[in-house]
Transport system permease protein
Amino acid sequence: MEFMKIVELLVVGAVGALAAILANRGIAVFNDGLRPVMPEFLDGKIGRKELAATSFALSFGLVIGFGIPVSIGASILLVHSVLLATDIIGTWSPSGKKGIIIAGAVGAVYGVLLTLGLQLVIDAFALLPINFLDALAKVGSPIVVAFAVFPAIAVAYQHGFKKGAITFLATAASMFLVNWINMLQVLQINGTNIKLSVEGMSLLVGMGFLIGFAISIKGDGNANQQLVSIFLERVKRIKANWIILAVIGGLVSAATSMALMAGDPISLNLMSQGNFTEAALAAGARGIGFIPLVFSTAIVTGVYSPAGTTFVFVAGILLQGNPIVAFIVGFIIMFVEIMLLNGVAKGLDRFPGIREMGEHIRTAMNKVLEVALLIGGALAAEAIVPGVGFFWVAGLYLLNRTMKKPVVDLAVGPIAAISLGIIINLVYLVEQGILMIFGG
């Protein structure tokens, strides 16, 4: 096995081991829904069995139905497939030193097997009679363009349709303008044409409107400061574990810099296409959206996220091919985040629009992803079986909504495309078997 491949396995294995230990000790969990449950366990109000069952119920479906299918489509691990599973591993492991050892060992093995397994799955797809892996890449293609619209959607959620429409039109105008500049080759340095990123520039325009509208809302409340006062001991608990949290921040950043891992489907697909600047912009915007959620839940629960506010992914994307530097920068980012817990809470009080903006960014990104992945899944399915793909994806999407326990909407497009590819191969094998038996 090549040296770099061994290093890659060690890095992902280390992320899995440390994240599972953090979940086992109740220091950090990735699932935002699980974090508020952790104090109940830490205070002894619920047992480990109840915590483990809750963790499994909250995370398993997302690992199988969302994290892994999206990862297969782009050949990069979506962090959800790693850190949601380590939440389960950590909470299912027993308490005490024995639990730390079990969680660490199982987490490391899971990380390594997931990395190897993903490559094995990709290699296995290439051996199928009808290789649909190339068509599967279309799942992420709409995301590259569609993600630029999320600031306008977030503005509409937060400030109403009118301001959302203004942001949308400004974003669309910037797309036309940048396309025009690129087409006419207006920007040149020493005779070399400079091509601007259409998606990146339009995202910047949208983010400008989003932040501008948000900071226009002033406030003098002190809700977050009061939270810090009330839950001072829990903030101290997070700060007491800053070293181990900073280490996993560094590891996640290093894994991202090696293109092994991504924090969200948007940046993952952009990374897989080599658009690292746009991927960093998307990851940065996502990080802004997660500041209020991660900081508020951390202050209230005393439990942090192993990926922090997700800015460690931005560092990893910008430092492609430099895992050691990415580790150091990710370590520092996580340390700074933890030390700023009190200060950021006060800042969010001063600009309540920024605090509320986070929730709207997350909602807007999820909505854009749902639409983009559904369209991408339909395009991929149609490329796999022309004339059937659109029917297949539309049918599964609507049928899923009638299920008692539906798959999350984000995952329907990728799952539908993969399932159609597998079915068409099975049909091909059956057809070949019939021909062999009866001749033809």
User: Anything to note?
Assistant: The first helix runs from residue 3 to 24. DSSP finds 21 helices and four strands in the chain. Residues 308 and 334 are 6 Å apart (CA to CA). The two ends are 44 Å apart (CA to CA).
